[in-house]
Every structure is written in structure tokens, then in C-alpha cells.
Amino acid sequence: MSAEMIIKLWKDVRNGLIEEVEKVPDDQMSFRATPDTRTIAELLQHVVETQKILVGEACRENGSLRRQSFADHGKEYAAGVRDVADKQGLIELLRTSMESAEASLRATADKWEEPVGGLDGKPTSKAAFLTFACSHEMYHRGQLTVYERLLTIEPALTGKLKKLFAQAG
After folding, report:
1. What is the set of domains in the chain, with CATH numbers?
2. Full-prediction pTM beyond 0.90?
3. Where are the beta strands (DSSP E) in the chain?
4. Relative to the CA of 169, which of 17, 87, 96, 136 has its CA 20 to 30 Å away?
């Protein structure tokens, strides 16, 4: 898959995630499905933090997720992300971090076939690594839609599909 295709796909996933977040009332950002799960705000912080780490390692020479602990990667690439917990701040963070990631990814697109070290320590192409990053975000978008259902909120994508089906007859 080309760099342009991965970037476009990831931006589409991010825009869909933002649409879902926009449906959640401001006072529900601290909603937690069970005591062992993240709140909605923590889930979004995790998405941004992970994106920053994965893009940072993919764009660096000899990047590897085993180069340091996940916590140290967070300090290096995502300082301040966990300080943002309000809905509007998180939406802005989702937007600006995607813009920043896109710029970094475009600047290094000619190196996407070079290896990067994954969590398992095995090298994989930077393109495959970034495809995983997009999949990771889509996974958490799905998780957010479950949270929305628990809050009796119709997910944004469900609403869009209902309209399309109604128009199609």
C-alpha cells in the first residue's frame, strides 16, 4: 500500500473518530464502561499518545518500540497529552496530532520500506507498522461506539448508514 493511501485511510479513520467524539456529551467524557476500562477521555488520550509514538518511531532512523519503555516513548513523543481531558481539547488534539503526523509521514515516505522494530522485537516495514497504527485507531473507534451505545447514543456512522439506506429505498 502506498504512503498516500495509508495517510488517506488514516485521516478517514481519524475523521470518523472525531465524528464519534462529537456525539458524546461533554459531561460524559469520564464515562467508564467497567472499573477496569479506560474512560472516554483516557481512550482518546491513548489513541493520540500511541499515534505520536508510532509515527515518531516510524519516522526516525533505526526506530524500534523496544528502544525504550512505552512510558519513556510517551515522555519523548507525547508529553502533555494526558493533561488534556475535556472534550473540545481532545478533539483539537486529535485534529492537530493528525496534521503533524501527516507532515512527518510525507517527509519520510521514501523510507517506508525500511525496517522498524515492533513490540515483538521483529523488524517490519515502516509501511506495515503504520498500517497497524491505523488499525489500532480503528479498533478504539469501535470501542468508543460501544461506549456510545451504553450511553444510549447512536454512533455517527450508524446514523450515516441509516440515511444512505433510506435514500436508496
Report:
1. 3-168 (1.20.120.450)
2. yes
3. 115-117, 123-125
4. 17
